[in-house]
Design brief:
Strand content: 15-25%
Number of strands: 13
CATH superfamily of the largest domain: ATPase, nucleotide binding domain
Radius of gyration: 21 Å
Number of helices: 16
CATH class of the largest domain: Alpha Beta
Length: 396
C-alpha cells in the first residue's frame, strides 16, 4: 500500500476525468479513476480501480441541466474515499490556456488564479470549468496544494513563424497569436514514442489527437513545431460541436448582414457547429458512423477530409514525414476514421494493415509502408500527476 497520493482533475468541454495515483518515490501507480461524460446532455459516470473493476456507475436523464460545477464536489469526495489510507499530497489540474506567460506547471496562488481568469475569453468552453475545479477543491480543502498544468505549454517553443498571425505588431505584442492546445496529451505521446520507437522519435511525426475536441501536432525530434489549433480551441479540424477553421469573412457576414451578436456567433461556433451542426444528428462519432442519415455521412466525410487536408499542411511545416500517430477517443477507438484518413493519405506511401487496424493494434501500417502508423492511447492524467509530483518537490 502506498502512503501518499496525487489526485488529477481534467475538466473538458463536456466531461470531467479524474484519477488517483499512488506515489512511491518518483514512481506513480494508478489506483482509481473515472470519467463523467455527456455533461450538459445526458451525464454518465463510470469509475474503475486499477484492475478495471467498476466501482461506481450512474446515468442522469437528459435535460437535467447539471453542469461541471455540480459534479466537482462529489467527484472529490469519491476520490478521497478511495485513497486507501494514503495521504493526499496535492491536486493537479489541466488548465487549457496559459497565455503567453505560463508555460510550465505552476502551483496555484491567488495571483495565478486571477491571471488565468483573465484568459477566459480565449478559451470560454474550457477555462471556466478548469478554474471551477480549482475553486471547488480550495473550498473543501483550503490548505491542499494545487498545481496548474497548461495545455498550451508544450507548443510554447514553436518557431516564431508558426505562432504569428499576419496582423500589425501592436496586436501581436498584446498576445494575439497562435498558441496551440492539447499540449499535455502531445507531451505524453512524445514521451511514449521515444519509449516505443526511439528512431521514430528522432524523426518527423504528425500526432492526431481526435476527440470531441480535435487537433494535429507536428513533432520534430519530439518537439512541437506546428499545430492546427491556434489563438483559441476553435481553429483547425472539424470537432464535435466546434467549427474548426472558418473564413473570418464569414464571421463578418454574420455580424453585418445576418445581424448576429458576438454571443450568438460564439454559441454557433463553439456549441452548434462541427459534427453536430453538419449532421443535425449528434456530436458523437460513434453515433454518426452507425446512422443511416445521409447528413451523418456528410459530417464524417467532412471530418476526415479536413483531417487529411490539415495533415498535408503540417507535412510542409515538417518537410517530410516518418510517422503518423492516432490518439484520444476517436483516434484510439475508431478503426473506420483511421482507415478513411489513411486512404486519403495513401499518396504518402501509407499502407494500412486492415486486420491490425480492426484490432486497434499498436502498429496499424504494414511492414512495407513508407510511413509508420501507430495507435497510442494518451494519458493526460498521468502527465498531470507527473508534473504535480515534480512541482511539489520544488521550493514554494
Amino acid at each position: 500500500m502506498v502512503a501518499q497520493a496525487i489526485l488529477t482533475l481534467n475538466a473538458g468541454s463536456s466531461s470531467i476525468k479524474f484519477a488517483v495515483f499512488g506515489c512511491d518515490g518518483d514512481q506513480l501507480e494508478f489506483t482509481t479513476g473515472g470519467k463523467i461524460e455527456g455533461i450538459g446532455t445526458a451525464p454518465h459516470l463510470v469509475a474503475r480501480d486499477a484492475s478495471g473493476i467498476v466501482l461506481a456507475e450512474h446515468r442522469w436523464e437528459a435535460g437535467t441541466g447539471l453542469q461541471h460545477e455540480d459534479f466537482l464536489g462529489r467527484l472529490f469526495e469519491f476520490a478521497e474515499q478511495h485513497l486507501d489510507g494514503a495521504e493526499l499530497l496535492g491536486v493537479g489540474h489541466r488548465v487549457v490556456h496559459g497565455g503567453a506567460h505560463f508555460f510550465a506547471p505552476a502551483r496555484v496562488t491567488p495571483s495565478l488564479l486571477g491571471a488565468l481568469e483573465a484568459l477566459i475569453p480565449l478559451a470560454p468552453l474550457h477555462q471556466p470549468h478548469n478554474l471551477a475545479a480549482i475553486k471547488a477543491v480550495a473550498s473543501v480543502r483550503p490548505g491542499l496544494s494545487q498545481t496548474a498544468c497548461f495545455d498550451t505549454a508544450f507548443h510554447h517553443q514553436m518557431p516564431a513563424v508558426a505562432s504569428r498571425f499576419a496582423i500589425p505588431p501592436a496586436l501581436s505584442s498584446e498576445g494575439v497569436r497562435r498558441y496551440g492546445f492539447h499540449g499535455i496529451s502531445y507531451e505524453y505521446i512524445a514521451r511514449r514514442i521515444a519509449a516505443l520507437d526511439p528512431a521514430l522519435a528522432k524523426g518527423k511525426v504528425i500526432v492526431a489527437h481526435l476527440g470531441n475536441g480535435a487537433s494535429l501536432c507536428a513533432l520534430q525530434a519530439g518537439q512541437s513545431i506546428d499545430t492546427t489549433m491556434s489563438f483559441t480551441t476553435l481553429d483547425g479540424l472539424v470537432m464535435g460541436t466546434r467549427s474548426g477553421g472558418i473564413d473570418p469573412g464569414a464571421l463578418l457576414y454574420l455580424l453585418q448582414h445576418k445581424h448576429m451578436s458576438a454571443d450568438q456567433i460564439s454559441q454557433l461556433l463553439y456549441e452548434q457547429s462541427g459534427l453536430l451542426g453538419v449532421s443535425g444528428v449528434s456530436s458523437d462519432m460513434r453515433t454518426l458512423l452507425e446512422s443511416c442519415d445521409p447528413r451523418a455521412a456528410d459530417a464524417v466525410d467532412l471530418f476526415v477530409y479536413r483531417l487529411a487536408r490539415e495533415a498535408g499542411a503540417l507535412l510542409s511545416s515538417l518537410g517530410g514525414l516518418d510517422g503518423l500517430v492516432f490518439t484520444a477517443g476517436i483516434g484510439e477507438n475508431s478503426a473506420e476514421v483511421r482507415r478513411r484518413t489513411c486512404e486519403r493519405l495513401a499518396w504518402l506511401g501509407i499502407t494500412l494493415d486492415e486486420d491490425a487496424n480492426a484490432r486497434h493494434a499498436d502498429v496499424i501500417s504494414t511492414p512495407s509502408s513508407r510511413i509508420s502508423v501507430r495507435v497510442i492511447p494518451t494519458d493526460e492524467e498521468r502527465m498531470i500527476a507527473r508534473h504535480t509530483q515534480e512541482t511539489l518537490t520544488r521550493p514554494a
